[in-house]
Amino acid sequence: GQAAHAGGKISIAAAADLKFALDEIVALFNKAHPADRVETIYGSSGKFQTQIRQGAPFDLYFSADIAYPRTLRAEGFAASEVQPYAVGRIVLWSPSRDATRMALADLADPAIRRIAIANPKHAPYGKRAEEALKAAGMWEKVEAKLIYGENIAQAVQFVQTGNAQVGIVALSLALSPELAKEGGYALIPGELHQPLQQGFIITRRAAGNPLAQAFVKFMSGNEAREIMNRYGFVLPGKVE
Amino acid sequence: MTGIHARFDLGYPGFDLHVDLRLPARGITALFGPSGSGKTTLLRCIAGLEQAPDGMLRVDGVTWQEGSSFLPAYRRSLGYVFQEASLFPHLSVRHNLEYGLKRIRASERKVRLDQVVALLGLGRLIDRQDPSSLSGGERQRIAIGRALLTSPRLLLMDEPLSALDAASKQEILPYLEALHGELDIPVIYVSHSLGEVARLADHVVLLEQGRVVASGALYETLSRLDLPTAHLDDAGAVIEAAVAAQDDAYHLTRLDYSGGSLWVSKVERAIGQRVRARILARDVSIATVPPQGSSIANILAARIAEIRDESPDRVNLRLHVGGEFALMSRITRRSRDQLGLVVGMEVFAQVKSVALIA
Amino acid sequence: MTGIHARFDLGYPGFDLHVDLRLPARGITALFGPSGSGKTTLLRCIAGLEQAPDGMLRVDGVTWQEGSSFLPAYRRSLGYVFQEASLFPHLSVRHNLEYGLKRIRASERKVRLDQVVALLGLGRLIDRQDPSSLSGGERQRIAIGRALLTSPRLLLMDEPLSALDAASKQEILPYLEALHGELDIPVIYVSHSLGEVARLADHVVLLEQGRVVASGALYETLSRLDLPTAHLDDAGAVIEAAVAAQDDAYHLTRLDYSGGSLWVSKVERAIGQRVRARILARDVSIATVPPQGSSIANILAARIAEIRDESPDRVNLRLHVGGEFALMSRITRRSRDQLGLVVGMEVFAQVKSVALIA
Amino acid sequence: MESAFSSAGLSTIWLTFKLAAVVTLILLLVGTPIAWWLARSRSWWKGPVGAVVALPIVLPPTVIGFYLLVAMGPDGPLGHFTQSLGIGPLPFTFAGLVIASVFYSLPFVVQPLQNAFEMVPDRVLETAATLRASALDTFFSVALPLAKPGFLTASVLGFAHTVGEFGVVLMIGGNIPGETRVVSVQIYDHVEAMEYAAAHWLSAGMVVFAFVVLLALYTLNPTGRRK
Amino acid sequence: MESAFSSAGLSTIWLTFKLAAVVTLILLLVGTPIAWWLARSRSWWKGPVGAVVALPIVLPPTVIGFYLLVAMGPDGPLGHFTQSLGIGPLPFTFAGLVIASVFYSLPFVVQPLQNAFEMVPDRVLETAATLRASALDTFFSVALPLAKPGFLTASVLGFAHTVGEFGVVLMIGGNIPGETRVVSVQIYDHVEAMEYAAAHWLSAGMVVFAFVVLLALYTLNPTGRRK
Ligand SMILES: Nc1ncnc2c1ncn2[C@@H]1O[C@H](COP(=O)(O)OP(=O)(O)OP(=O)(O)O)[C@@H](O)[C@H]1O
Ligand SMILES: Nc1ncnc2c1ncn2[C@@H]1O[C@H](COP(=O)(O)OP(=O)(O)OP(=O)(O)O)[C@@H](O)[C@H]1O
Ligand SMILES: [Mg+2]
Ligand SMILES: [Mg+2]
What we know:
The complex is a heteropentamer, with one copy of chain A (240 residues), two copies of chain B (358 residues) and two copies of chain D (227 residues).
Chain A lengths: L8 E7 L3 H14 L4 E7 L1 H9 L6 E3 L4 H9 L7 E6 L1 E5 L20 E4 L5 H12 L3 H4 L3 E4 L2 H9 L5 E5 H4 L2 H4 L3 E4 L8 E7 L7 H10 L2 H9 L10
Parallel strand pairs in A: 1-2, 1-3, 6-7, 6-8
Antiparallel strand pairs in A: 3-10, 4-10, 5-8, 5-9
Chain B lengths: L3 E9 L2 E9 L4 E5 L6 H9 L8 E4 L2 E5 L2 E2 L7 E4 L11 H9 L11 H7 L16 H13 L5 E5 L7 H18 L3 E4 L3 H7 L2 E6 L2 E7 H6 L12 E12 L4 E6 L2 E6 L8 E7 L3 E4 L10 E12 L4 E8 L2 E9 H7 L6 E6 L3 E2 L2
Parallel strand pairs in B: 3-9, 3-10, 7-8, 8-9
Antiparallel strand pairs in B: 1-2, 1-4, 4-5, 5-6, 10-11, 12-13, 12-15, 13-14, 15-21, 16-20, 17-18, 17-20, 18-19
Helix pairs in contact in B: 2-4
Chain D lengths: L6 H34 L5 H9 L6 H12 L4 H8 L9 H25 L3 H9 L4 H12 L1 H17 L2 H7 L9 H10 L3 H25 L7
Helix pairs in contact in D: 1-5, 1-8, 3-9, 5-8, 5-9, 6-7, 10-11
The structure holds adenosine-5'-triphosphate (2 copies) and magnesium ion (MG) (2 copies).
């Protein structure tokens, strides 16, 4: 059913790369709205899209790209326009070698036996990683070394556990406290790949839900933008 | 329409059962025949465990099977003691015994648990938890008790006593007899032992290779010299007699029957009551002059009614007393010739031993 | 150090086995006793299927068990026929038979498959695929054959013939005898049938409640009037005699033994050969004057050596001929008194029937 | 970071337990007749039905989840059906989770039961019939107790598989706290979020709990050997 | 869009088949002695060992995958071991996949085998012993054939579970085409990428294949009932 005004509740389905940033934002929001509850569920954007089509009880959908929310909007599952909320960046990350001075070209080094990326087939970060490798002329050289995570978090785990030496991961994850203490990163030039546009929608079931509206508003506020920035998300200047 | 009428045709590769039998509604019918002759198969058909197509079975006018109608085994009021005792391995001895008992209406319970326990000597066993640790004979006794406790209208027993020693057999047999006497449950009883058959049965069915070779009253069948039974070591006559006198000092009883008088071990019955006794052919010897000073107490004046070769060295005789069949005797061919025995001759039959059987 | 020496102590709740037995290294030992007396348990100990702590077992000087040393069952060269035939359900009849055969060295194979098939009448069965469809007797015959085919040095048989009809028994018994004669395999044979015991056994062990009541040579044990066996219906004497004369016309043979001469069914043996015969006590009657014109061919002049009450109405007599034990006789107490029989008296023993058993 | 033993954590654990228990119960109820029929029937259909029952195992859980989601969704055949009954669509509800888990774990229950039933000798069933027990009565009083080891295995596999499964659950349940978020999904979340400490604790808790339950089952229920 | 039947698709199918076959074989080899011991031993250890063997089922596959990844990684105990043998770390190799799948599917094989072995009557084993069969011989010539239905179930569950599993496989395998990308992962990828047509085809192919194999198994190998 619809969330009530006072003591309302919304659930947000969000891409996994948002985890650290969004958790902080929601904590702030909850402090400001003690009577309300905001729940976050992290997962694969594609899975969420499928589930929303089948009537999943999500009020807001923060996708890791912009194509999924657009499709939903076109199919009539959205109660709002598709709003870009961030542009993601990808980085080279490694706990075992000094990644801060690394460039894509260094991946040819035979000491690097395995490189982890998210599966380009369905994970947006993987797709960008592939584009970047191709643009840098490295694809053929490293293709045999690639291992594919189900999503960007799994790609990180391959590296974290030492099974891959380097990963191409989301900047937001590299900046997370968990990873920051383990290794450094090198930003991959943004012009090597398509921008990682990330968009969100209010779902049909939350149409007219004031709490959803309030959260959207909070999201574009300064506090939230500051947090997003801190986690390496480039913020859009304006609504598309 | 009382009695049992069974007609079954059932084929296995290498064997087929082909019977059309009418059995009396009361008493014990012995099913007798060599290994593999189809005794178990016939019992299974009767029990409804084997579904012979086109079979027919009526018990006391009630149709259990005919054409396409087939009363399932559990709706047939029968008890079945299998050839190999099959206790439920997960139940204690007590629960095994009570299994069938619990499943019949209280009003139908004619056999009591304590009765069965006492008569089958199960007192020491009833609280055992694990039936698999019982001895072979113990298992079989429990299986018999379990079947009896369903107070069935027809009891099928497939060699129930073969795993028992002579003493246990002697204890159980009277109970089976009593059961039949008191409860009037017809029993079909498979046995390899002619002794058991003679002791228990009223009716005998001889099976061979799935066919009925003979079926008839015990007295007639066992005294026929032309049947395979006549060649068995235990062949003999079964007679019905009345208690005529008691000799308490010597613990003996005199029985009178159409064939004469016989002294037997004391029978605890009133004068005039009828009992059954069995006289083995090999226990009957022949004398042409009245025997003197002999330990053989029973000597009957008889006439030879039939002489038939039993084996290369022996002949079987049918003896009449007062015009009626009385005894069977088995003697050597040489004795026959030495004594010049021929049909019609008057002789003295010496009966060494009489087994009282009911 | 030949022979079998077995000492076992084994306790179950409510039962304990406590035996210390010496058995001959050859011939058949009958293990006889009521249901639940521990016969099967003893066999299992001997086979190594039950591990009696502190048990001891030596077979022909070879220690199979003693202290902590314990030869596992499969290393003991023995054959075991279980009380309930246990064929391998997944193997065809042929493969069941060959199971043990394949597992012994070719040089040890003294019993051939075709021999066993012929002697146990398995020809019709050997190509059957599913042992569970066999009749009870068929299964048991196959189990016997399977055990024989391992050419064991010791054969344990737990009531192997109880599921068989008289005819099959009669066919198999000679083979078991032959086996023992030809192959010299000692056999321990559990049986409820005194007839079987007398026919087969050389040695008898009487078990009661886990204790050995008597153990001794067949002749002695079965002729003792103080043992439980004396009360059995089948009690009697077993004698060893020599073939003395043949009467081909009548198909008879005269046997001579220490107790006198007996005419029996033709024995196809040369003059002078030794045979064993069994004379049931109830087949022996007593006369104080020489019987005349009787079909009883065998009459021996004997002396009464012992008289003992057998039951309220009967007594057992031990009879000597020429100073040696010859016969047992069972007569009524009344006959004893009427004839005035006392120990030491000279009488005529009439032997109605002699069962030749080996 | 959410602790495993916070109140949300407890509700997750409780939900998991409830789901596994309900699913196991339904699995046994549904699986037993199927297994019995597969074990005892001589019908031609036996092979095909047996194969169909075993099928769900070969598909990856997420994929099964996907197909179930589509089937149960508002436009799916099952969804149409439940909506026509006035229940509404099942995905993202506890009932939906239960149905999906039952579907997915069925073979793990049917197979051991079928085996156990096949091993019950015909003879004891016949004996029961001659002692007046109807087929149903025989089933409960003889076949069931004799098949006890099979039931133990079936329950363990069914329960544990439901607890451990998360592909189907994630897809059909949607990971909604207090409603469809079970422990397996929770651990998965922790791992994905690199909250390894929480994942370790929760995993260790699960393992210890499972160990204790299994140990109790095996020790209190010694599945006796056949004599 | 990659077709299921392109050459890459075929290599995926072949890999899946090879993995499942190898894993099933190893499972049977490893699981049989464990199951036999669990079924016949009277040791006190029976309960604990049985519980430990059953444990992997309760954890979500991805989580097991994660822990295995850590254990097999260059810094994990298993990794140290394999490296000291000169094999190098196992993750992202076929061997690693095999080991992980064996670990994960072991209970599905051990449990049915244990049941089947428990149902073998003592009497037939004793009979074999009196016919000169050693314990090992008895095991192969009597226990094994009598436990056939259990082996059938164990093989089906083990094989199918390996085919269907993808959580562990994805984690340990890294989804490398031709090396560790198996059909379940492939279908998952298709679904995630919303290439539903490809997913449908591949799923349908799997289902049909599995159906045919299972049907053949059940029809050619009628697991006879006990008389
Ligand atoms: N399913 C079957 N397939 C083939 N033959 C069978 C089947 N069932 C029984 N037979 C055969 O039918 C014959 C009769 O078997 P049955 O069990 O009725 O014999 P029986 O008279 O009880 O013998 P026994 O005294 O040895 O128990 C046997 O030869 C047996 O092998
Ligand atoms: N595991 C056990 N636990 C308790 N009692 C047992 C166990 N095994 C055997 N017994 C008991 O020991 C006694 C002897 O059994 P055994 O099987 O040796 O008897 P048996 O002489 O072979 O009898 P039968 O002639 O009936 O086969 C029986 O009373 C039996 O119930
Ligand atoms: Mg039979
Ligand atoms: Mg016994």
